[in-house]
Design goal:
Elements: H1 2-6, H2 15-26, H3 32-47, H4 51-54, E1 59-68, E2 76-86, E3 90-97, H5 111-127, E4 132-139, E5 144-148, H6 150-167
Parallel strand pairs: 3-4
Antiparallel strand pairs: 1-2, 2-3, 4-5
Helix pairs in contact: 2-3, 5-6
Length: 173
């Protein structure tokens, strides 16, 4: 995550050296093989076809969102989104996942990841009404960018909020 936060603004030729220095300084305990693997993965992400949008001028790194989740419980919270890309007509919410073996399709995405992205998406919908809000997972292994179905995210969030309401004995509408 740190490499993907720091490297995008640099010329491609300067990235490997800075990545090595950054890892040596901030994560000196990493084994050399692990460090080189992380660097290679980050550089592959930055060279991917989708990188221009995610790491360009419209993108915010580690963007903070205040969340007011919909429903009778009106849950409040805060989140830090790995990438938030704000266009005049749409917003893209992206979370980075470093799983060694990412799923082949959206059906294999762990429920916890869906809940996380559904909350982020709900927060972005509230902040940018009238804009299309999309959510995706950037699997650093690969790398690949996996768009998530808005309907599926909405159902995951609704189910979680319904469960939370029941846990607190609140009536179910």
């Amino acid at each position: 995550h740190r490499l993907l936060e720091r490297l995008p603004g640099l010329p491609a030729a300067a990235r490997p050296d800075l990545a090595r220095r950054l890892i040596a300084h901030e994560f000196p305990e990493l084994a050399p093989r692990t460090a080189e693997g992380a660097i290679a993965e980050a550089l592959a992400v930055l060279a991917a076809p989708f990188a221009a949008e995610l790491f360009g001028g419209q993108a915010l790194a580690e963007a903070g969102l205040a969340l007011r989740l919909p429903g009778p419980a009106a849950a409040l919270g805060a989140a830090r989104v790995d990438r938030l890309v704000v266009h005049p007509d749409r917003v893209l919410v992206v979370d980075f996942k470093t799983d060694a073996r990412p799923p082949d399709d959206e059906a294999g995405v762990p429920e916890a990841y869906l809940l996380q992205l559904s909350a982020y998406r709900a927060g972005a919908v509230a902040l940018w009404p009238g804009r299309a809000v999309e959510a995706a997972i950037l699997w650093t292994a690969g790398p690949s960018l996996m768009p998530l179905d808005a309907g599926r995210l909405g159902r995951a969030l609704s189910a979680q909020l319904d469960t939370a309401q029941l846990d607190y004995g609140e009536p179910h509408p």
